[in-house]
Amino acid sequence: MIVKEMGFDPLSSFFCSALATVVAVDKSLWKEKMELYRSFGWSEDDVVSAFKRQPEVMTLSKDKIVRMMDIFVKESGLGLSIVSRYPKLLLLSLEKTIIPRYSVISVLMSRELLNGDVNFDTICHLKEEKFLEKYVIKYQVKVPQVMQAYQSKMRTVLPMSRRNKGEPKHYCQPKTD
């Protein structure tokens, strides 16, 4: 069995995820996705390592892989290493999580308001309320751009039904009654 050969413990929850992934993704698509990850600079070992940490990375559409890797490698400057260390980042929503949070963190880092080590994986996996409290609301008076960065990125992804006169409805936005 291929999953066992990759070193998965049959008693771990990852074994079931890995097995389900191997069954769901046919051999030719698996090879295409391996090549796609390698086209971004990963070695075969990097892809296998990411799969061992988060088997679902091989179930993502090729389009999502390209968009996510482009953001991490080309646009954000975060690089391949963060994705290989934390492959579950690839499973998050680019529009609803990655871009808004990266925008906020970038503003705060440019103002040197965050202590050196910022773990982007941890930041992306905070509950929305906790992220807003810790990184947006805490700094919004001192650095108004933080709220602007967060809202401008969110505005681009909210469906029209959630907008009021072109503005997103968001609980941290001041009421205008």
TrEMBL record:
One protein family per Pfam: mTERF
GO biological process, one term: DNA-templated transcription termination
SMART domains documented for this protein: Mterf (SM00733)
Superkingdom as given in the UniProt entry: Eukaryota
Keyword Transcription regulation: yes
GO molecular function: nucleic acid binding
InterPro entries: MTERF, MTERF_sf
UniProt keyword annotation of rRNA-binding present: no
Keywords: Transcription, Transcription regulation, Transcription termination, Transit peptide
Family from the record: Belongs to the mTERF family.
UniProt-recorded name of the protein: Transcription regulator mTERF family
